Q: What sequence folds into this?
């Protein structure tokens, strides 16, 4: 790993560890599915074999709600959520999973869909035959789900699972936040995005194979891209975060569940939903936010972050965090927090 990427990686990891988050891993099924994740240690106990497992007992008397942060395509979740973990940790216990085929999370299962990603995270949160599960106090600990871009697609499935939409819900109903995530996208949207990126198919853009494609992706992701990015940084980012498991990531893109596969995919969620969007998002244009709201119904509302693109939570973290906390916290707490 190059010096610049190593330095940035250390800075973002420090943002996590300074809030008390620690890194763990857990096997979540019998198909070799292992998730690496960050979490507050109060949620965890050691399993019999010494590996980290998620706790279901010995919880502190005062338990806080849980927020699950689900990342999109790109670098590690530490890079993607560094600006959010501090403000959120003042009020919530956090779980930040690394999705399958990003970082060290992996599986032997053949499935490559966003629904399968969500099932793995749900197993981490609620447990199964071999995993105790996060201390949700038999449904008394509220769980909120926040996902950005591809992570929003995963969050959609996870929200239904936690609410009992699959018959296995074990968490109290929390809220759902979808950030620049086009739940209703189809093949025609992929074709438009590919054309914007100057590539033949969208996988060439979202899973870049060379520095030129990565620069195109970076330019589309932010409203005001930097005028100069050193070639050494692009090369190191490509090698560390995009070249590794590229074929599996292409399969993930192809495996995204659409309304063509499931007409009920975007039926209204039982939770309150906040849709946050960057005003100048070039990956998923802002009008998509309102189409997603139409799908999700009266429980959903839209907030647009001015002068930001696809990475609104990174481009204007202060405004984004204010909007996020205002939604997740009781109004009195949110007002005190803003002072």
A:
């Amino acid at each position: 790993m190059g010096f610049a990427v190593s330095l940035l990686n250390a800075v973002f990891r420090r943002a996590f560890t300074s809030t008390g988050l620690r890194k763990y891993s857990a096997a979540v099924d019998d198909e070799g599915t292992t998730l690496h994740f960050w979490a507050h240690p109060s949620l965890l106990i050691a399993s019999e074999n010494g590996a980290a497992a998620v706790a279901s007992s010995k919880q502190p008397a005062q338990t806080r709600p849980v927020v699950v942060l689900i990342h999109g395509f790109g670098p590690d979740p530490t890079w993607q959520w560094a600006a959010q973990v501090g403000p959120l940790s003042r009020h919530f216990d956090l779980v930040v999973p690394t999705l399958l085929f990003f970082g060290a999370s992996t599986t032997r299962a053949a499935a490559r869909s966003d629904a399968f990603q969500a099932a793995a995270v749900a197993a981490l949160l609620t447990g199964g035959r071999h995993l105790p599960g996060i201390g949700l106090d038999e449904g008394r600990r509220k769980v909120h789900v926040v996902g950005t871009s591809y992570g929003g697609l995963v969050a959609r499935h996870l929200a239904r699972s936690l609410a009992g939409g699959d018959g296995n819900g074990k968490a109290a109903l929390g809220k759902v936040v979808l950030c620049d995530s086009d739940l209703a996208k189809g093949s025609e949207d992929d074709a438009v995005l590919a054309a914007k990126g100057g590539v033949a198919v969208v996988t060439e853009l979202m899973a870049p194979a060379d520095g030129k494609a990565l620069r195109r992706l970076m330019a589309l992701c932010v409203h005001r891209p930097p005028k100069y990015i050193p070639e050494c940084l692009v090369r190191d980012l490509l090698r560390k975060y995009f070249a590794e498991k590229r074929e599996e990531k292409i399969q993930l893109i192809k495996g995204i569940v659409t309304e063509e596969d499931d007409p009920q995919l975007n039926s209204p969620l039982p939770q309150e939903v906040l849709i946050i969007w960057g005003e100048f998002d070039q990956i998923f244009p802002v009008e998509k936010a309102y189409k997603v709201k139409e799908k999700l119904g009266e429980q959903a509302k839209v907030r647009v972050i001015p002068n930001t693109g696809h990475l609104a939570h990174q481009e204007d973290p202060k405004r984004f965090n204010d909007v996020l906390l205002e939604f997740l916290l009781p109004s009195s707490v949110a007002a005190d927090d803003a002072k």
The chain has a mean pLDDT of 87. DSSP finds 13 helices and ten strands in the chain.
